[in-house]
Specification:
201 residues; alpha/beta; Transcription Regulator spoIIAA; 4-stranded parallel beta sheet; globular; 4 strands
Length: 201
């Protein structure tokens, strides 16, 4: 419809790594799509299987490569803190995040939403109380895993984001792609918020 009406707009979208294709990305790019968000979730295949994500690490790599080929930016979402997750699994996710090297990332700490299987499992394991849910969000941990405390998860999330965004190669790559002073100011503000947020958390 956007192409048929010859509309000049920029927009973003979410997609699964197992449904994206070169043809789809080409059409999205022509229609003005500049960024696609993917739920990569984890760098551990064991973790992906246990959370029933039904994707592979190779599909995640392929999705990023296709988008990069056609000049569409990628936004990667990752998840840590599932009941069975170990420190090694989180470290694998951090390493995979850097390997994929999407343009932007965020790391959420698993949150037991009522009605989900995760809620049921965590509740049965006594990992939280309903009172805990009132003060939780995706950047804070209200439960622990079999191997990691709530404090460990918060620190690992901080490590993941800081080690991704503060890489010299990422900073250089980002600066090279800046096309206006307005965009540069936006990146600087975002970077300062990131550092400030973790410095006082």
């Amino acid at each position: 419809e956007i192409l048929n009406r010859n509309l000049d707009i920029r927009w973003g979208s979410n997609s699964r790594v197992d449904t994206i294709s070169e043809e789809r990305v080409q059409w999205m790019k022509k229609a003005g799509c500049w960024i696609i968000g993917f739920g990569f979730e984890s760098g551990s295949q064991e973790n992906l299987t246990r959370m029933k994500k039904r994707i592979t690490l190779e599909q995640s790599r392929n999705a990023v490569n296709i988008c990069r080929k056609y000049g569409v930016k990628t936004y990667g979402l990752f998840l840590i803190g599932l009941p069975w997750e170990t420190r090694q699994m989180v470290e694998e996710t951090i390493a995979f995040m850097k390997e994929l090297n999407p343009n932007f990332v965020d790391v959420h700490i698993a949150y037991p939403l009522p009605g989900t299987e995760y809620y049921r499992i965590a509740k049965e394991m006594g990992m939280f109380t309903d009172e805990d849910l009132k003060s939780g969000d995706y950047s804070k941990a209200i439960i622990h895993t079999s191997d990691l405390s709530a404090d460990d998860l918060v620190k690992l999330r901080r490590k993941a984001l800081m080690s991704f965004y503060l890489r010299p190669s990422y900073i250089l790559q980002t600066v090279r792609n800046i096309r206006s002073f307005k965009i540069l100011k936006g990146y600087i503000r975002s970077g300062l918020r990131l550092v400030k947020g973790f410095a006082f958390s």
